[in-house]
Design a protein that fits this description.
Blueprint (H helix, E strand, L loop, with lengths): L3 H15 L4 E6 L13 H27 L5 E6 L10 H20 L3
Parallel strand pairs: 1-2
Helix pairs in contact: 1-2
Length: 112
């Protein structure tokens, strides 16, 4: 979803179907196989940015406009490159992600 026109069309279709947009869940995930930075192909880096950053930005750009028109809404963004990791490393990566989220929640609750 890195094409601005496609992102806008998706939001317009949601508005046509439901009359408003109150919530959105953007799920993007693309990455490269674990590789030292010096060996990372530029094309792999560009693909990860296009999918994980640009697509989320574009979707939010049009979602936010639609939500503000009706007084607000909620957007959840998720990204994972776990599919590219060897299966034996997946549980450890998932635990690390949960730990990072839990830490952020604790800091937010503590006002930090």
């Amino acid at each position: 979803m890195s094409d601005p026109a496609a992102a806008e069309r998706l939001v317009v279709r949601a508005l046509e179907a439901f009359g408003r947009l109150d919530a959105a869940f953007n799920n993007a995930g693309e990455g490269h196989m674990p590789t030292p930075l010096a060996g990372l192909a530029l094309g792999d880096f560009d693909t990860a940015l296009r999918v994980n950053v640009r697509s989320i930005f574009l979707m939010m750009k049009y979602q936010i406009s639609a939500m503000l028109a009706v007084g607000g809404g909620a957007i959840v963004n998720m990204s994972s490159t776990l599919k590219r990791w060897p299966p034996d490393l997946a549980p450890a990566r998932a635990r690390a992600g949960r730990q990072a989220v839990a830490t952020r929640w604790c800091l937010a609750a503590a006002g930090g």
